[in-house]
Design a protein that fits this description.
The longest helix is centred in the middle third of the chain and has 23 residues, at about 50-70. The protein starts with 12 loop residues before the first strand and ends in a 7-residue tail after the last strand. α1 (about 50-70) packs across α2 (about 110-120). Helix content is about 30%, strand content about 25%. By secondary structure, it is α+β, with helices and mostly antiparallel strands.
């Protein structure tokens, strides 16, 4: 990291953990955080897995658009991130897994897969999760109404 240059940083503050509130210090964004009903919680807010899915899908799609521009591929792109919370028997805790579904308007599976693999190598979220959690990337048909 000695040669890297800081491009951006942000800070988020949480009080109350999974049943609390998270916000940015400038108050431009805040969200009520709640344990999902599926896990015995009230389910009356967002949860960390949903927020991770939002961030990962946006970051990955930006990386995909960058790769499309480099390869001169046109069309709209769409990334769906499904974040799963699993039990972790190694420490009786939890672990994440992510499924990314990638679609590019007007492109075949081979082209979409090639660009998705390049985006996966480029995306900061993918770099951060590499070797730490299971991430699968698959191609799907682009759906304009999604």
């Amino acid at each position: 990291m000695a040669d890297s240059k800081l491009m951006y940083q942000t800070t988020a503050i949480n009080t109350g953990g999974r049943n609390g509130e998270s916000h940015l210090p400038d108050n431009s964004f805040s969200v009520r955080v709640s344990t999902p009903k599926d896990m015995g919680g009230p389910g009356q807010g967002s949860n960390p897995e949903q927020l991770f899915a939002l961030g990962y899908s946006a970051c990955f799609n930006s990386a995909l658009e960058h790769m499309m521009k480099e390869e001169k591929v046109t069309g709209k792109s769409q990334v769906t991130a499904t974040v799963e919370l699993h039990s972790d028997p190694t420490d009786n805790g939890f672990k994440l897994a992510v499924k990314l579904e990638v679609g590019i308007e007007g492109q075949d599976d081979a082209t979409t897969q090639e660009l998705a693999e390049k985006a996966h190598a480029f995306c900061p979220y993918s770099k951060a999760t590499s070797g730490n959690i299971d991430v699968t990337v698959t191609t799907v048909a682009y759906e304009a109404d999604k």
